[in-house]
Amino acid sequence: MTKKDAPPRWDRKMQQRLARGEAAALGELYDRFASLVHGLAHRVLGDEVAADGITREVFAHVWEHPESYDPKQGPLRSWVAALTHRLAVQRLRATETAALAEGGGGSTEELERKVRRAAVAARADYIVTSMPAPLRAALDLAYFQRRDYRQTAVDLGVTEDEARRRLRLGLQLLSTAHDAGTAAAPPGYGGAV
Amino acid sequence: MSDASEGWHEDADVPDGPGGNGPTDGTGADRSPAPDRPPRIPMPRASVEDGERPLPTLSAAENPPVPALVLEHPVLKSLLGAWALAACSAAEATAVEEHLGDCGSCADEALRLREAVGLLHPPESLDLDPALRTRILESCLDRRPPRIPVPEWAAPYDAETARLDALLQDIGDAEWHAPVRLRWFDGEGPTSRRTTVAGVIAHLLTVDGLVALALGLDDPLADVKAATRAPAVRTETYWQTSHFPPTRSVRTPWREQSHDLVRTVSFAGGSDSGSAKLAVSYGDFELPLHDAMLDRAFECWVHAEDIAEAVDYPYGPPSGRHLNRMIDLAARMLPVVLAARRRPLVDAGKVGRTLRLEIEGSGGGEWLIPLDGPPAVGSAGEEVAHIALDGVEFCHLAAGHVPPAEAAAGQLGDREAIRDVLFAAASLSRM
User: Does B122 sit within 8 Å of A152, measured CB to CB?
Assistant: First the structure.
């Protein structure tokens, strides 16, 4: 549905309805965010069952603690994504640490690298799904459909200058996925993108 | 940074790139850096999608040397995104790469953008198991019981609309216009009406609107007056008065209305409150609100199957618990239809003949169908016939998708009674 550009009013109302204990609101919350949550968790963990588990945790958290979301801090969608990111990265680190302790191969450095790579990949996915539609459309044409920028311009009905601008800007946004530390606090889920 | 570039090199070493496991299409040559390129910036990376279209030509190995292109710094800078995506001409790529050797800021950005390209993935198929929704919501509600629950009789509608919406999320623009044939049984025989996937959602929107009307919510047909409340009339009115054939834009109003219905009936409360007395008018007949919500759940599933078939998408039956309630509604409506087909033969309160309807499979059970009209009471003592069939098969019969004569039913006893009941079941269907 309209995953993006949900007015802040929807976010506030949703929070109030959850706080009031409306089961129907929980269903709506799930319908709006489940594929985002599951997709991010899956990108981090690479495992269907583990992603199901994170999805369960995220919705349980929001349902049990709706007050922990502050609408003034940004959209609910970003908050849910950041929560998912945090829980999924925690789970990945715990699983990998356990595997390391059991004598599986690898080193702590490799573990950290793996965790960081998973975190960056998940942030990148989020950035792509959240960036303005014209930028995403340009990237889609140039990358997945293999159109060059001139063809992209024609397909989008914009000037070649504009097509180049969109491709560059889209990649610039995407590159911010690398900017976080080791994902203690997951940036990249701001309302700006 | 070091981590990221490592990630990139790993990708570059894999012939198919991340996620690529399809056959290579000969573009592999474009993926390895040409020997004469500056090693500082990795070569443009091929898309992981091995589509039919050729990559924009890039590799110097494949192309004759291009005449040098002289471009200004701002132009070169503006080309960095297209260059990183291998989406500019060979001459432009060469000009950019030469420039990168001289311009530190562009080189930094080029590297950054090239790494960003490595983060693009084809969107994963997000087919969430519909059962996951039920499981997760139930586990949440166990942990914190809701103050305003969704009534049990509205749960099938909630689940079926969510299931259909998940299907709709996955289909492309063109598929919204895929032809769908709505089929039902008009009492005489099978009949059908041609529409599209979007047309089916418009149909669900307008008929669900009858429940919205009964609850005092907005009627999706408020702007155009339909002659009657009959579902087919409302649907045809909606189709005919919209200037354009329905598109995927119909999904949002349909979904918003279905969410509003679930929310509103939750506030209307459980079966002991006033909501039980509310009736939903379908024009020439009425259903109590609880049954109307079951009916709408049933229709949602049936039409979701129509859509799934049209766009070649797998679609399973409802959960056993919900299927059972839908079958129960049909079983309860059968005597009314039987009565309309034939005058009651016994007086009210008298024990009439019955047929035992045995439904097999998930959601199954046994129902005693009074054959002599609603005034008579169903009783096992007067059983004159017995039919057994699968739950989904029974629903397909009741949806008018299986002709009564062809329903795969085990039959025992009075053949005329069996024929009557199978025909009555098919007559429950409508557009």
Answer: no
